[in-house]
Amino acid sequence: ITSAVVFDILPLKLHPFSQSTPTGLDCVGWKRRISSPVITDGALDKTALTDDVGSEEDLYEDFRSSNHRYGHPGGGGEQLAINELISDGSVVYAEALWDHVTMDDQELGFKAGDVIEVMDATNKEWWWGRILDSEGWFPASFVRLRVNQDEPMEDYPLKVEGGKEDDSSSGTRRFGMGQTTKDQMRTNVINEIISTERDYIKHLKDICEGYIKQCRKRADMFTEEQLKTIFGNIEDIYRCQKKFVKALEKKFNKDHPHLSEVGSCFLEYQTEFQIYSEYCNNHPNACMELSRLTKVNKYVYFFEACRLLQKMIDISLDGFLLTPVQKICKYPLQLAELLKYTNPQHRDFKDVEAALNAMKNVARLINERKRRLENIDKIAQWQSSIEDWEGEDVLVRSSELIYSGELTKISHPQAKSQQRMFFLFDHQLVCCKKDLLRRDILYYKSRINMDDMEILDVEDGKDKDFNISVKNAFKLHCRDTEEVHLFCAKKPEQKQRWLKAFENERRQVQLDQETGFSITEVQKKQAMLNASKQHHTGKPKAVTRPYYDFLMRQKHPTLPTTLPQQQVFMLAEPKRKPSNFWQNISRLTPFRK
Q1: Which of 358, 467, 519, 557 gives 7 a disulfide partner, CB atoms 3.0 to 4.6 angstroms apart?
Q2: Would you say residue 217 has pLDDT above 60?
């Protein structure tokens, strides 16, 4: 199936709690603004939302029948404009906000910052795109459209000796009143930063006044703990962003935007932006709590009534709550583009350069935490596949699989050797035994607390402690009990990988302590519960990502009926390539055998 296939536009299902993704909430280019008035205090009269479930449904129906419809930026005018540009032969580029890791050969994988050519945006949630020679589907909510669509891919200005720009570069072309193309490009980026920041403030205000304020009036429906779980510290973020946008406005040169000096604003607020870490860490809990509440119609209609009264666009609450996560990861992309069009002689150059590095560090920390949270589901599923498990769950102490592989373990007395599979997590090393007949089945045997161990490299030859000859060996020595574990790898390179993995494990533990990273008890219990349910229903023991699916809101597009049925099935429900247990678990490790 190629990108030439034209897909039917999915009809917007009239459902009170829309499952649409927040595509285009702060996308740039072809922006369609909502000019509807905003209710100043976002007030919802308690008499309008009584305790009766039916009354909230009636309220929703009243608004729906009154034609209070607000378009989805990702699926309305902007989406239509994108497809018109593509149809006219224009090349449309988007930049990745997130890493998109996929095991499906019909999807396009990429890393944050990659540039993707958008080839089909007919479906508002899944677009078809290309990177180099690879094509496939990707989630539209994971990208932002580039500000300067007419710019070639090799966009950085050429440098010549002496540090001056090459006169042959596009930067020498003139625009209007003595303004170069590069200045015009910088103007576009500055305008985008200011514009999207104003839009973002509007979204935050709508959440705080349209949802939180009304939820607090309904003590019969929400506890303070629930509200903290759902909305996290978004009110703190709103207060921070209001101050930030005021600082940006002061630095914004309305007459000559390219002369604006906004880099210092990002540097000034880089510490305050760290509050996003708490929000992003809590976001999976918010998704789970919302999912639980919206199984009850009372909450579905209440949330939809809040949205309609606040005159918010047609995106569900979970979509709005994703915008802060997207926003903090978008700043480095904006600053990188701004730096690209800022001459080294510009007064803002050094500040923009420093701001880019600062915001990259913030985004890197948040992305790493997001990835770690996704991993706990995989670890829980791995544990559920192990037979005869004993003791506490892996997630009680660990949240990252560092490395795994087969080793020979030599034990006292008589220096007995055993072939075992070992899984190195942060804080612990888990030992398992393969089934004699079915090698894809593992039995739990033991674990070692890595916090008490030191790693000893052992030279080839006779070992004094065990009185045997060894090759490619290393030891784990317990500092407290003097207990010693001897291990042998099959090849020297395997031994070196294990030694490197042990270093990485200690480094990971230290980094978690420094950054304060931790998995909440709620997240651990939910991950184990999900794994247990899948195990008992007899589903394949495969790696899935519930939180990742929350972000992606996976919906495959409708296909024309003229396509063969087999092709329709393959796209609607992508088939995974056959993979055994070891391939699944190896996806968790940074090493390849």
Answers
A1: 557
A2: yes
Specify whether the CB–CB gap between 119 and 129 falls below 8 A: yes
Residue 209 has pLDDT above 50, yes or no: yes
Q: Where are the alpha helices (DSSP H) in 341-385?
A: 349-385
Structure confidence at residue 347 (pLDDT): 93
pLDDT tens track for 145-191: 876 665 555 443 333 333 344 443 444 444 444 457 888 889 999 99
Kindly compute the dihedral angle of the four CA atoms of residues 419, 423, 429, 431, in this order, to the nearest 10 degrees: -30
Q: Tokens for 529?
A: 């519960």
Can you give the pLDDT at residue 30? 35
Tokens coding 445? 């045997």
Structure letter (DSSP) for residue 436: S
Which is nearest to 335 in space by CA: 362, 356, 349, 363? Answer: 356
Coil, strand or helix: which one is 134? strand
* Bigger pLDDT: 389 vs 181: 389
Rounded Cα distance between 180 and 26, Å, is 28
By C-alpha distance, which of 87, 82, 93 is closest to 146? 93
CB 532 within 8 A of CB 404: no
Which residues sit opposite 286 in a β-bridge? Answer: none
Domains for the chain: give ranges and CATH numbers. 77-145 (2.30.30.40), 181-375 (1.20.900.10), 400-516 (2.30.29.30)
Q: How far is CA 9 from CA 162, 547, 560, 561, in A?
A: 54, 27, 10, 13
One-character DSSP codes across 146-194? -S-TTS-SS-SPPB-TTSPBPTTSGGGSEETTTEEHHHHHHHHHHHHHH
Mean pLDDT across the stretch 483-503? 94
One-letter amino acid for residue 31 of the chain? K
The DSSP string of 24-48 is: TSS--SS---------SS----TTT
Using CB atoms within 10 A of its CB, is residue 190 exposed (0-12), middle (13-18) or buried (19+)?
A: buried
Q: Which two tokens stand for residue 194?
A: 């200011």
Residue 257 DSSP class? G
DSSP 283: H
DSSP state of 556: P
**In whole angstroms, how large is the CA radius of gyration of the chain?**
27
CA nearest 383: which of 397, 393, 369? 393
Long-range contacts, 587-592 (Cβ 8 Å, 24+):
587/103, 587/378, 587/543, 588/375, 588/378, 588/379, 588/382, 588/401, 588/404, 588/543, 589/401, 589/402, 589/403, 589/404, 590/402, 590/403, 590/504, 591/403, 591/497, 591/501
Helix (H, G, I), strand (E, B), or coil: what is residue 512? helix
How many residues are given for the chain? 593
Q: What is the pLDDT of residues 101-158, one digit of tens each?
A: 775 678 898 887 789 999 988 887 889 999 988 899 998 888 888 766 655 554 433 3
Please report where in the chains the tokens 């020595």 appear, as a residue.
Answer: 477
Q: What is the reported pLDDT for 556?
A: 37
Q: DSSP character for 208?
A: I
Q: What is the pLDDT of residue 390?
A: 94
How many Cβ atoms are within 10 Å of 357's Cβ, its own excluded?
12
